Amino acid sequence: NAESAMKQALLSGERHFYFDPATQARMAEKLALENDLRQAVEAQQFVLYFQPRVDLARGRIVGAEALIRWHHPEKGLVPPAQFIPLAEETGLILPIGDWVIRTVCQQVAQWQRTERHVVPISLNLSAAQFKGGRVLDTLHQAIAQHAVKAKLIELELTESLLMHDPQAAISILSAFRSMGVRLSLDDFGTGYSSLAYLSRFPFDFLKIDRAFVAGVPDNVEDGAIAKVIIALAKQLNLRTVAEGVETEEQLSFLHHLGCDEMQGYLFSKPVPVEQFEQMLREHVRLSLPTYPAGKHSP
Ligand code: C2E
Ligand code: MG
Ligand code: MG
Ligand code: MG
């Protein structure tokens, strides 16, 4: 790419190189964003939104995922897809990741004191947080400092993060396990997993990626994949969570396959903390439609 081409040119002592204006503009924009992101870390311009997770059998909120947003002074609320990759590239994901862990622990600890119904909150981890066991230290400290119940914290990890060094991953996951936190395998089906390793990783939940959920019930291949994933999870004693459920047809189809929990716009988008607290307090029993078997069943 242009960036490495430029580095190459600089290293080889070449003084005259040329990028077309579009590439120059892109590079300048990226640099500006990197600067802004450094300041954002200093000024703590981040905020967590919460997206509820619903248990179909109980018809209740049984958890939520904490999802980061960046309150940019000029651009407003920036979604993670627009800055997490850059944060990972620049190493800024380390302080950001620490902030997420501390903030979730602090928030859950507060709910432990003030709310009647507290549910486990999950957070997403990036690969770099694993190096040198940093994430273990941060998590251990945050849990101790805020006296949060470990079973109310859940970590979401992706296949690619684990498969980079499966042996190291197994030992870190075991350390998480002995702390008492819950573990879920995020975006399942999109990375390269080895089925051999899958059974050796001590997960509690398997989250089916939105890519497959989006296709059901109409896309036969996606339906088949969802079915196999749910069956596999049952064999391995993992609970399944479908991500990105948007329609009642998807809900019905996945429900019939035996999917345990769901998360998606059908129930709620990720919402600011006050709004999520309201949902917790209402402790509503969601009226999940009961479907006549057959209509959308696989
Ligand atoms: P993810 O962990 O797979 O999170 C689920 C994403 O799907 C969220 O996007 C959520 O808003 C979106 N989603 C949920 N239900 C629906 C639905 O019904 N329809 C559609 N179209 N989308 C739905 P979001 O919040 O933009 O986050 C995107 C990704 O950014 C996350 O994917 C995760 O990989 C990453 N991310 C978010 N927060 C953090 C964080 O604190 N740390 C790290 N390392 N990554 C994060
Ligand atoms: Mg996630
Ligand atoms: Mg996911
Ligand atoms: Mg994802």
Automatic annotation (TrEMBL):
Domain EAL residues, every copy: 30-284
Protein name: cyclic-guanylate-specific phosphodiesterase
